[in-house]
């Protein structure tokens, strides 16, 4: 091949010194931005374009040639054109034979085409080694150099050597390549930049459902009921009073739902007597979005804190306070201090403060950069020990808030209990079951199961090969 | 020395096994710290020094030799001495020929010398391959191993192979090399550690200016006016009341200024009919510091929240409340509940809480480790969709706070409107223009322009090569 | 499909194209998870097991062979079995000769065995090259792919080439290898995942001690004293009032203790006239846990803020307020505004708000991902300049809070001063000494010492080789 001889000649006097030329097909935004960055990192760059006059926006150290000429100059060709224009590449099949073609394209919709763009490219030019890369990086991020969004570049391809070459370029640009395996992974990689918080979908939908339910529940109890029976217009409760009932209730339920799947998994493992059979799918998915559930719960807890702290500034509350004092003043009365009330009020506030602070701490440790700096044991300590402590404190906060109102008939309007009473169901179940699981008669077999022991072992020698890292 | 001969013998049968010797010129803090770290990572280290007696602080596995002897033992020589002492290296030019010299030095001032230290070194020893590296790492960070500050090591140099060797050492030390291109980049790399938050300068100066303006503005309205007309001493307003007027006003203006450049850019692109011509420089710079502007705005919003929440604890406020109740009690009056006021008060508080919570969420997503874990689409969703929602909520918060006071003559003292009225100008302009831009007659051409379409195309075939990643 | 047949042909002559086979001994959780991940990243995987029937949980692309057969297929063998089962490896010594053995094991306790597992393995199979790696990664993290915990993989080993091979595998899996040196480091690496926040132990124990002391101190002053002398039951103060005395006091003392070691170090350096002699061990340890001390202080400050902001919601406080107004109403009196009190109250609140906000900012900048993105100068600016400003603001907050109560005899019950008076001792000492150290007569020699100057120099030429990066 004359390409090789050309390369060898060009490189002979100075082989080690130079990075290999990279060719870019397409002079659009992304091609230009990538070319600019490559030149900065020491790669000679040639652009392949239909129009070989150098446009003004092309980086000035780059050459612009015809596709054929450009392709001959480099072993790696970055295909920075849209999928619908790929077809012309078939005419270049001969020149592209043996070359590394880097597919950087994205689609507009998830699973827009039956096969991924990279696989389509590999079918069009069967002699080339296709590598998928760079599709998660934006032209703007490359140009501005700020790279606020991710530095991760997913790379996949069938040819190891080609993939290695592309990964070296990625590293040279200051980005982090992540090998995702063979070209089959391209579909997933192409879908990645089109995703919009997939792990957050379930937690957010669930919390929206809970918010809607408790909104109408509280509306009936707190606005419609007094309007019907006392003809009082408390519609302004919609702004703060009702949200401040919804937020703590939703936060507590979501927090309990973070710990419920762990408890369910323990029961399943105990029942099955092994950890080597898969959990049901819904449980697996639930366990994978526990972090997101917890963070949504934290957001509601945060809102609850703010809504609570503005209470004394509210016009209605100030009016109520001054009215109460005035009515006492008119009767020439003074109130004695009710120590029980003082205890209850201070306790539930204190429990709430401690619970929220621990919850906030849990939120901080789930920041990627913090969790990257703790080891596995520390991570589990924070997320399970401190997590349960948070759940206990928040449940206790709600119980003490209820205080002696649980049995008072005035708490039930139209037979509807207060919203916070409903919110206690899930956390109490989780805490009771967890408490039962701590008893040695259940904890011991569970620990053994998690270390690999099986009640009805399938492979007798497996217990020899336990690694002391239990799942979860 | 018999220790040396032993080493050589031990190494003979298994050369591939060993990392290559690294030589360090200079036994100062940084040289010693780097030597220590290199030895830890398996590199044999020799120090070159005028004084060849091993000082007590040199790592014990390292040899100390004369400069000549040390240089002969290694292919890579780290020049850990100050620039003003570089001149003696000319006498070693012959031995240093073909070696990789790593310049680790920093200056005391930005652009202290006409050329960078690394370029000066390359001039002094023209036969050597000079690489700039390690200048952003501190001796203390290397020694303590904590590396709280950055793990990034900027590397530049004209010789690819030499740069690669240095980058491998950087990686072996557990640091992240970032290739910055040729030795021309050394100037910038040397200036980097001398920078003090360059991106923050404009946002901070701007906000200080705004703070100063609104401080005097509020001082006149809230302290001097009542002193002149009512002889009341409200000087203590300087501590909380006035800051709590300044903070929300500055926060809202800065938040609007985050979104103003995007709107301006859209207008410019629509007017020009293309996205392929550069924005004016001031707009480019403004767009690059939007994140910092937003975070400064968040800081003021945070202060506003704290200042607002302490209101009921303030001695003055408690006095005012009790005085108001007492005057009603003396007149034997009670106040009826003003539902409109309750609605207004609760609404602006609720809007403020929601706005601040969303703003806080935006702040969290701008943490590097969080933004690294979202894809480009998610990043844009958070920063633009949620960002505009934040701006709308905060503007509405201010509008409702104003309520029916906008037209009340008591809001104007010496013809000066309330500060919050002034703060509404910029956000309202941004929101109105953004609202206009959403109309299909403007949104459609804008989308097409951002996808590469041009009203008066310069290169007719460019539209074929659009990559579906639009800027911003 | 002709694409497939072409591919097979294309791959035949080009073996370099393939990643090398990796062998895994042990089919436990960790072995299987690692095997799965390796296959994903393109490595052919064979498992060595006593039972060569493929168990259902083994990744389907992997082979399961006898230990002998499996070992022969690969140059790298990952020993994913527990230490107590290592002994059978001696029988395979011949086959394992020259192979790279990767020890991934962990123990149950710190320093459980006299030598590390990796060193024990190296003794058992002296002909093999043992590398320690992967022990910080959990099976669950590998399987789920979320890798919430650390991506860092500590690697150590005596053979450079073997270590390099393992580090390449680590990188291919998308993890970050950190070379920790020779196999001697294995002990430390094996202890790492068993650690539970070692740097936090001292700060947390210290703060618990302070909390206990100030709890009983406040209990005596605020609950027992009024009970004894006035027969009042203020036991409910335990929930909020007493914690809200403890938190600010502990936060201020801990914050001052963050800056005390720096001041002590300066005094020691000035006294010794050199920076080249080691600090006492306790001072070194103290300096290394300053960040943790500061963050614990921030947590207490955060609690203090929440405890303070709920004050107006407390049942007791509302009772006290209404009682005070009622008693005035009964006497038909009104209170005039006390401007001094208004000034004092607003000032200490404002100082507290500013101090806490700055403190919060310091906390944010100590997040790993934030501190990774600032240069050394910026890091020092934030941590020392802004840190001292925080200390000054918080000390001033406490001083103004005390106000004119310092000399009032009612502040002393049973000769015990208020807790906040005790908390002022350490910060005032730190600030006074720091203020003295700023005077030029002390600052100049200190700066020179920190740049390497010595009062009684040991090596006369060292001053030539100062690098302008001073420690701390």
Automatic annotation (TrEMBL), chains A, B, C:
Q: Name one GO cellular component term.
A: plasma membrane
Location of the Pyrroline-5-carboxylate reductase catalytic N-terminal domain: 21-107
Q: In which domain of life is the source organism classified? A: Eukaryota
The main location class comes to: membrane
**Has keyword Ion transport?**
yes
**Domain spans labelled Ferric oxidoreductase:** 249-394
Q: How does it sit in the membrane?
A: Multi-pass membrane protein
Which reaction does this enzyme catalyse, per its entry?
2 Fe(2+) + NADP(+) + H(+) = 2 Fe(3+) + NADPH; 2 Cu(+) + NADP(+) + H(+) = 2 Cu(2+) + NADPH
Q: What are the TM regions of this chain, as residue ranges? A: 202-220, 249-271, 292-313, 347-365, 386-407, 419-442
- Does Secreted show up as a keyword for this record? no
- Which compartment or compartments is the protein found in? Endosome membrane
Q: Which GO terms describe its molecular function?
A: cupric reductase (NADH) activity; ferric-chelate reductase (NADPH) activity; metal ion binding
One Pfam family of this chain:
Ferric_reduct
Q: Which UniProt keywords apply?
A: Copper, Endosome, FAD, Flavoprotein, Ion transport, Iron, Iron transport, Membrane, Metal-binding, Oxidoreductase, Transmembrane, Transmembrane helix, Transport
- Name the needed cofactors: FAD; heme b
Report any one BP term from Gene Ontology: iron ion transport
Q: PANTHER family given for it? A: DUDULIN-RELATED, METALLOREDUCTASE STEAP4
Entry similarity comment: Belongs to the STEAP family.
Q: What's the name of the protein?
A: STEAP family member 4
Gene name of this polypeptide: STEAP4
């Amino acid at each position: 091949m004359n390409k090789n001889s050309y390369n060898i000649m060009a490189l002979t006097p100075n082989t080690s010194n130079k990075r290999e030329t990279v060719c870019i097909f397409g002079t659009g935004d992304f091609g230009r931005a990538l070319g600019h960055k490559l030149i900065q990192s020491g790669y000679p760059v040639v652009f392949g374009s239909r129009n070989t006059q150098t446009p003004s926006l092309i980086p000035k150290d780059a050459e612009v040639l015809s596709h054929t000429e450009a392709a001959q100059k480099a072993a790696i060709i970055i295909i920075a054109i849209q999928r619908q224009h790929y077809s012309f590449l078939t005419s270049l099949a001969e020149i592209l034979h043996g070359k590394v073609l880097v597919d950087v394209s994205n689609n507009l919709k998830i699973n827009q085409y039956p096969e991924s763009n990279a696989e389509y490219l590999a079918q069009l030019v069967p002699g080339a080694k296709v590598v998928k890369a760079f599709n998660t990086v934006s032209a703007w991020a490359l140009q501005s150099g700020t790279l606020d969004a991710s530095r991760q570049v997913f790379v996949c391809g069938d040819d190891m050597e080609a993939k290695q070459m592309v990964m070296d370029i990625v590293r040279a640009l200051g980005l982090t390549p992540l090998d995702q395996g063979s070209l089959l992974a391209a579909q997933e990689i192409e879908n990645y930049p089109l995703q919009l918080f997939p792990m957050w979908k379930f937690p957010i939908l669930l919390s929206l459902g809970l918010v809607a339910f408790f909104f109408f529940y509280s509306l009936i109890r707190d606005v419609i009921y007094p309007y019907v029976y006392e003809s009082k217009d408390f519609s302004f409760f919609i702004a703060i009073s009702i949200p401040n009932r919804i937020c703590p209730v939703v936060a507590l339920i979501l927090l309990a739902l973070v710990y419920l799947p762990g408890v369910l998994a323990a029961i399943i493992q105990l029942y099955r007597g092994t950890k080597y059979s898969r959990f049901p799918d819904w449980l697996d998915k639930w366990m994978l979005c526990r972090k997101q559930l917890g963070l949504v719960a934290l957001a509601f807890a945060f809102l609850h804190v703010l809504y609570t702290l503005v209470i004394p500034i509210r016009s209605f509350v100030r009016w109520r306070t001054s009215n109460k004092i005035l009515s006492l003043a008119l009767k020439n009365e003074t109130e004695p201090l009710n120590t029980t009330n003082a205890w209850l009020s201070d306790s539930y506030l204190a429990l709430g403060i401690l619970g929220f602070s621990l919850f906030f701490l849990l939120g901080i440790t789930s920041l990627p950069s913090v969790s990257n700096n703790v080891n596995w044991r520390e991570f589990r300590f924070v997320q399970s020990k401190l997590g349960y402590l948070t759940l206990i404190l928040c449940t206790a906060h709600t119980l003490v808030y209820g205080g002696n109102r649980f049995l008072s008939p005035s708490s039930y309007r139209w037979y509807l209990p207060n919203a916070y009473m409903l919110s206690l169901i899930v956390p109490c179940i989780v805490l009771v079951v967890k408490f039962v699981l701590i008893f040695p008669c259940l904890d011991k077999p569970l620990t053994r199961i998690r270390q690999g022991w099986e009640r009805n072992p399938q492979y007798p020698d497996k217990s020899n090969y336990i690694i002391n890292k239990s799942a979860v």
